[in-house]
Amino acid sequence: MDNKKGRIGVFIAAILAISVFAFAMPVVAKDPPHIPAGSATIAIDNGIIDIDVFGETYSGYNVWLYRGGSNAYYEEPLISYGTNPPVYLSNGTVYQSYPATGNPDVWYDATVGLDLDGDASDDINVTRSIMVPSGQKYFLVKYCIVNIKGSDLTNLRFFQGVDYDAGDAGAWDEGGYAEDFVWTHDLDDGYGTYVGFTGDRTSDHHSVDGFSEMWSDLVAGSLNDANYYNGDVGVGLEWDLGTLRAGETVCLTVKFAFADSYDELRNMLGGVAVPALTPIGLVALVGLLSVIAAVSIRTTVRKRE
Ligand SMILES: [Ca+2]
Ligand SMILES: [Ca+2]
Ligand SMILES: [Ca+2]
Ligand SMILES: [Ca+2]
C-alpha cells in the first residue's frame, strides 16, 4: 500500500516536473501562417552566399551576394498546361509567405495559388521552398505543384528564367547551356563569377539569348535551345512534366550555384555523373581482371622455371 502511494507520489512529482520544465523551456516557434503580404524577403547568410531577397512570387531584382560580391538576378518561374500560354508565378495569390529572415540548412515554404487558364479560378497550388546549405556555394528551391482544378492538367510545363547580371551591376556578361545546366559568367565587373542553375529532372528545352528575348521565349512557351550568347544574357530551362491528375502533386528541385571558375560550376551542376558500370561493363571488367591474373600466374610460373 505504502509502496503504491509512493509510486503515485513519484508519478505526480514527475508530471509536475515535466509541466514546470515545459513552461521553463524557451518556446520554439514554428513559423505561423502569415497574412498574405505579396513579396516577402528572406535573408540567409551561410558564410559564402547571402540570399538577400527571395520573395515567394518575387518578380524582378534579387540581390544574391557571393563572397561579398554583389550580384543582381532577375529571376522568375512560369507554369503552363495544355495549350495555354505560361503564367508567371507572381500572378498568383500568396497564401503563405516566407519569414523575413531564415537560417542555413532549414527549408522555408511559401504557398501560392495560380490560375493557368484565365477563368479566375486557381488550377494549382505551388509550394516554393528554399534551403541554403551551410558553407556551400549553392542553394535549392523546390517547387511542389498540386492539381486543385478537379480534372487532369495535361502537358504541364515548368519554366525557370534568370537574367543574371553577374557582378556589381554590369550586364555585359556571357552565358550558355551545356550538360543540362545554364550558366552566366561576369565579364565586366572584375569578379569573373560563374553562376547557373539546373534541375533534378532532365530539362526538355533551354533558352540562351538577350535577356528580353529569353523572357519573350518563356512567356511564349517556345525556347530557342541556343547554347551561347555574349551580352546582357538571360538563361532559362523548361521541364515538361506530362499529365498531372486531379489531386496529384509533382515536385521539381532547382539548384542555383555560384563559382569562381567554369569547372567549379560544372562540378556542382553537371558533368559529374560517373557512368554506372552496366552488366556488359562488369563482364568486360571481370574478363580483363581474369586476363591480368592469368598473365601474372604465367609470369610467376616462368620465373620459377
Ligand atoms: Ca483556372
Ligand atoms: Ca539584365
Ligand atoms: Ca557583370
Ligand atoms: Ca543578364
Topology:
Elements lengths: L1 H23 L19 E2 L3 E3 L8 E7 L5 E9 L6 E2 L4 E4 L11 E7 L9 E8 L6 E10 L5 E13 L7 E6 L2 E5 L8 E6 L5 E6 H10 L7 E4 L1 E12 L4 E11 L2 H8 L9 H26 L1
Antiparallel strand pairs: 1-2, 2-3, 3-4, 4-5, 4-10, 6-7, 7-8, 8-9, 9-17, 10-16, 11-12, 11-15, 12-13, 13-17, 14-16
Bound molecules: calcium ion (4 copies).
Describe the protein in words:
The chain is an alpha+beta fold. Helix content is 22%, strand content 38%. It has a 9-stranded antiparallel sheet. Strands 1, 2, 3, 4, 5, 10, 14 and 16 form an 8-stranded antiparallel sheet that branches. Strand 11 (173-178) and strand 12 (181-185) form a beta hairpin. 36% of the residues are buried. One calcium ion (CA) is lined by residues 163-165, 171, 173, 211, 232-234.
What is the mean pLDDT? Answer: 81
- How does the major sheet shape up? 9 strands, antiparallel
CATH architecture: Distorted Sandwich
Here the CATH topology equals Beta-galactosidase, Chain A, domain 5
Cα-atom radius of gyration: 27 Å
Range of helix content: 10-25%
Helix-strand topology string: HEEEEEEEEEEEEEEHEEEHH
Secondary-structure-based class equals: alpha+beta
- Poorly predicted runs: 14-37, 272-283, 299-305
Number of helix segments? Answer: 4
Distance between the termini: 92 Å
Identify the quaternary structure here: single chain
